[in-house]
Amino acid sequence: MQTLAIIGSQWGDEGKGKITDLLSQKADLVVRYQGGNNAGHTIWVDGKKIVLHLVPSGILHPHCLSVVAHGVVLEPEAFMTEVNRVREHIPVNGKNLLVSENTAVITSWHKLIDAAREGQGAVKIGTTGKGIGPSYEDKIGRRGLRVRDLLNKDQLFKRLSETADEKIFLLEKRYNIKAPTVAEETERLWTLGQTMKEFVGDAFGILQDSLVRGKKVLYEGAQGTLLDVDYGTYPYVTSSNTTAAGIHTGAGTLNGRVDEILGITKAYTTRVGEGPFPTELFDEVGQYIQKTGNEVGATTGRIRRCGWLDLPALRYAIQCSSLTSIALTKLDILSGMDVLRVCEGYKVDGKVFTTARPGMDLARVEPVYRDLKPFKDDFASDKLSTELQAYINLIETELKIPVGIAAYGPDRQQIKFRKDYF
Ligand code: IMP
Question: Whole-model pTM?
Fold first, then answer.
C-alpha cells in the first residue's frame, strides 16, 4: 500500500487526528487537501495537548513532509500562530512543511463576512466563523487570492483592489461593520507572506515526484462526508469536498489511485452546528454520551449534539468515497450503558430505506432502530466481550467492509489494528 486516505464518514469529529497521527509514523508525506482551520485535531505529545487546525498531523513526526495542498483555504495569521505553537515542541521549517503556492487565502474580510452572515443571514449554518465559505466563494468566483500573491506586494495590492469594493460595501453598508482598507489588508498580508515564505512551493510537483519515487502518502481529510458541499446535508455543510473526490482536485494522485480509503467512524454519531441529524438523542442518554465522550468542539468549544450510530448514513458515506475499511473510534464511551442501539434504516412516508440519499430530507426521516445487548468492557486486556464483538460484527456485516481499527481511547495502546495499513 503506497497511498492511504483518511476520511471522516459522519459529520466530522470522528477522531481522525489520532488515527492520522499514528499512521503518519509510517508515511513519508501527509497531505491536507481541503478545508482550512475550521478543522481541529487534538493530539497529545509527551503529555502535552496540541490542537492542529491547519498544519497536517505529520508535522509531529520529523521524518514526514507535511503538505498543505492547493485545495485548502489558508488563513495566514492562524497558520503562523499554529506553526509557532508547534515550534515549541518540534522544529518547523521549509524542509518539513510545504504550502502550495496555489492555495487559496482567507482574508480579514472573509472572516468578517462569515461572522456577520451567521448573525444576520437568512440561513444560519452554525459555521466555525473562520471565513471558510466566503474564501471558497471567491476561489470559485475567480476573485480569490492565492498564497503566491502574498509574496509580491504589487500583485497583492492589485488583486485585493479588484475585489475589495464589493466586500467593504457589504460589510459597512449591509452589516454595519468597519472593514479594513485595501492598504491595511495589503500591509497585513504582505508581512504575513514574508514570515511564511520559506514554506511556499510547488506542492503539486513535489507530491507527484514523491509518488513516482514510491514514497508513502497519507491524505488527511478534514470534516466529514455529511458536511461535503456536494454529498452532504446541504445547505448545512462546509464549502469543500470532504469526501475522497477532494483528494483528486485538492492535491493530486498518481494515475488516479488511492490504495486504501479509511473512513473514520465514531461508535455513535455527533454533529456540531445546525442541520438535520436523524439519530440525535434529546434525552439523558444523549447527555450521558456528550459528557462521557467529552463531545465539545476542538475549534469553537461548542457542545456537540449526540446520537446513535447511523448505518444508512454510513452506507452512503461508503458509496460517496468508495471507502475500503473503517476505523471505529470511542467504543469505550458506549461501554457500561444500559441501552445500545443502532439505526438500521430510515422510514419515509411508510417506506424503509437502508441507505441515505442526497435528495432525502433527513429532517423528516424516522430512524428504525435495532436494540443490541449492551457491552461492559473495561478494555484492560485485548479480549473483547461477546457483546462488543457482536457490535463490531454487526457493523462489518451491515456495511460490508472491515473494521480495520477499533479504538477504546486516545492512547496508542488503546488503538487496535485489525488490519495492516502501509
Ligand atoms: P464552516 O466549515 O466553518 O463553514 O462551517 C460549516 C459547517 O461545518 C458547520 O456546521 C460547522 O459546525 C461544520 N464544521 C466545520 N468544520 C468542522 C469540523 O472540523 N468538525 C465538525 N464540524 C465542522
Answer: 0.97
